[in-house]
Amino acid sequence: MDGLIEEVAKLLANSKHAVVFTGAGISAESGIPTFRGQNGLWKRFDPEEVASIQGFMKNPKAFWNFARELILKTKAKPNAGHYAIAELEKIGIVKAVITQNIDMLHQKAGSSKVLELHGSLEFVDCLDCGKAYRWDDLIDKIERGEVSCDECGSPYLKPRIVFFGESLPKDVLSEAIEEAKKSDVFIVVGSSLQVYPAASIPFVAKESGAKLVIINVDPTDKDWLFDVVIYGKAGEILPKIVEKVKEYCHVK
Fold first, then answer.
1. Listed residue (220, 236, 243) closest to 23, CA to CA
2. What is d(CA 162, CA 101) in angstroms, rounded to the nearest whole number?
């Protein structure tokens, strides 16, 4: 593995426009469960009921029960993988982070350019009267299981995330594709690359000539696409890569 870490560090040290693409795997190391796989959330919850727009409009309480059980209980904080990516941006190598995650852990770790393909939990909107809330201001309501609008009483408070059945935000997707096209090194971290159109973005980078790297605990069916494949935890591998990059770039 040391040889692969060194290979990735050299690619990054020589890059002009590196981009990182992250999925649920990186946040799993912060205690947030993944969705797919052997112990994924969809083994315990019906995604059509708790994470589709149709399910939400039918029964918004099902989503909020899901949120209370999983999102609030983790009290998640950024891990070493998130901090390593932010450090690579700080030293001028990573130009953007494209993420499928909605947890805002990249921003909390210090990354400034984060393209959230599936939105985030930062804001919540009442679909009936339009009142906007900050997620943090609703935590007491969520924990009590009593989520409704203070203004109009509606139960339809929806976080600004992309549910199944909804389209990705066009402006964010377009910007992510542009970043992929500009990239000369494109690193996927903790994604099974099964959810489209997000999973097509590494292909865009490849077609534009980027070197592709994937760091993931488990193999994916897209591993053949990548120039470097490393199996393991982001929180263990990325800090080692950052150390090597700093050596090559003479950064303290």
1. 220
2. 10
pLDDT at 43 over 80: no
**228 close to 241: Cβ distance less than 8 angstroms:** no
Please tell me the least confidently modeled range out of 25-39, 74-88, 99-113. 25-39
3-state secondary structure of 232: coil
Secondary structure (H, E, C), 161-214: ECCECCCCCHHHHHHHHHHHHHCCEEEEECCCCCCCCHHHHHHHHHHCCCEEEE
Provide the pLDDT for residue 86: 98
Q: Would residue 250 show up in a list of annotated catalytic residues for this protein?
A: no
Beta pairing, strands 185-189 & 157-161: unpaired
DSSP assignment of 96-115 equals: EEEES--S-HHHHHT-S-EE
Q: Is a pLDDT exceeding 80 seen at residue 69? A: no
- Structure-block tokens of residue 239: 């800090």
* Encoded amino acid at 90, one letter: K
pLDDT in tens, 158-190: 999 999 899 999 999 999 999 999 999 999 999
Q: Alpha-carbon distance 174 to 203, whole Å?
A: 14
List 82, 106, 118, 250, catalytic entry:
118
Integer Cα distance of 217 and 81 in angstroms: 13
The H or E element that residue 7 is part of is: helix 2-13
Burial class (CB in 10 A: 0-12, 13-18, 19+), 175: middle
Alpha carbons 77 and 106: distance in angstroms, whole number: 10
